[in-house]
Amino acid sequence: MARTMEVADAMPEKTAETVGKPTDVEAVVPTTEEPLEKAGDAALKKEVWPLWKLCLLALPQLGVQVLWGFLGPNSAPYMKHLGAPNSLATLNNIAGPIAGFFTGPLVGAWSDSSTSRWGRRRPIIMGGLISTLVAGFFWSGSEALLPEGSAIFLSAPMYWVLDVTINVLQTPFRALVADCASEEQQAPMQVVFVFMMAIGNFIAYSMMQIYAVPTEHMLELMMMICGINVICIAIQAFVAKETPLVRTEERSKECCCAPVVKSLGSLRGVPAVFYRLLVVHCLVWLGNTAWDAYGQQWFTANVFEGDENAAEGSAAQIAYSEGVAAFSTAGQYRSAVQLMVSLLITFIMLKTSIPHRLVYAPCLYIGAVVTLLASFAVGHNGNFAIVCMVLSMITEAASLAIPYGLVAFWNKKAEEEGKQVSTAMQMAVLNCCITIGQQVCTLTLALLETGLSLQSSLTVILVVAGVAGVFAGTGAFFLKATDTE
Fold first, then answer.
1. Closest CA to 162 of 84, 249, 70
2. Longest distance between any two alpha carbons in the chain, whole Å
3. How many angstroms separate the CA atoms of 128 and 122, rounded?
4. Residue 31 has what DSSP assignment?
5. For residue range 296-331, what is the model confidence (pLDDT) as tens digits?
6. Is there a contact between 37 and 195 (Cβ–Cβ < 8 Å)?
7. Phi and psi dihedrals of 358, rounded to 5?
8. To which H or E segment does residue 163 belong?
């Protein structure tokens, strides 16, 4: 699944949750016809939100993270449960990267320029919630709605719709919080989002332990997750206040893609080191996806040698259940590691002078080593497999913070030199690189499964991910814009 909105966890400057996101001055929407900057300044001085209210505004990130954390490892097994062969079950996962690549920037631009009388963010959030509830019901309830053998023809396309609706739902979250937070509150709120994401992941992995074979109870589990999202967004809607953006003649003539087009033009002239970072980011997320999306299949098929379609009570079915339980346990530990590593990296980035690249490279090497160990050394040792999966989170947590810190650092230096920069757009391009890494991983695994068994294919994709991690770690050492870094 594409998770392009989870980035910039440790950034006190600007985040990349939406393309064309307004600046700190523009974040507070004016109520008059006076220029946006002046009206924004006046509104900013008028009210400072308490931190606890901002935390309630950020609560929906927890619910969406439960969605991503649950759907990622369970989507392919569910397609297999409905009758899809291994390669097609994996191939259907390309929905996430494609939806994230296009939907996020477009919805972000739409949200920034919306003149709805209900505000810029909340109408899109509510529309995304309603469409996600509908898509989630049809995706997970296809077995109850259609005869046996036909459910796959409803569930597979609805998975694509579900990916789009979740991206619509989540895109305005951080923008809404940034609209309301003062400059001093921006950095603490990034920590809050890290916390929300870690708790969301913990809940998602815990839900996999409710039933021995989650794919047989997908409708019940999905409705529980939808209920969590409804509660979180209801709380946000009760607390949030937005002033509608004033419609001007210039805005009325612009299409929804205008902010995207303008921002893309600002990428001209970025330093070569930025493009090296993009390559590293793609390689890193190839490896992250191998664990996030296909880790459960590796646990159940390779480590525990189980079969989800085996007869109930058989040794293969019991082994499958044990594999799911081990994977979900590893995911729970992983959530704790995500929180601790993210906070540690935030501290290093804000309180020390250690170059970001010298922190990033070791984190990437750790992920590469444990992924290669999973390929060649784990065998059928469940505890060893859990350790490898937990340690792989060090790489993912670092990739959700440090690259964005590098971009902000480079651009801050460029601003001091009087150069024009586009921090938000560069971070948005980093988001898109996440989806590219996800897509490469999924397509490679699907291709392998056309000629190899599931077990062999999963072993090979972990080898590919480990090698990609080695190259990424090596490339990270060269992420410096000047000789003095």
1. 70
2. 72
3. 10
4. S
5. 999 999 999 999 888 888 999 999 999 999 999 999
6. no
7. -80, -15
8. helix 152-170
Can you give the pTM of this predicted structure?
A: 0.78
**Highest mean pLDDT pick, 9-13, 121-125, 241-245, 476-480:** 476-480
Residue 88, Cβ neighbours under 10 Å: how many? 17
How far is the C-alpha of 335 from the C-alpha of 349, rounded, in Å? 21
Query: Which has the higher per-residue pLDDT, 344 or 44?
Result: 344
The answer to whether residue 477 scores a pLDDT higher than 70 is yes
Domains for the chain: give ranges and CATH numbers.
Answer: 36-258+269-476 (1.20.1250.20)
Cβ neighbours of 208 (radius 10 Å): 21
CA angle, 382 then 385 then 390, to 5°:
125
Structure confidence by residue, pLDDT tens digits, 246-282: 655 554 555 555 555 555 555 566 678 888 999 999 9
CA distance 423 to 313: 56
- Which long-range contacts does 47-52 make (Cβ < 8 Å, 24+ apart)? 48/182, 48/185, 49/180, 49/181, 49/182, 49/185, 51/185, 51/188
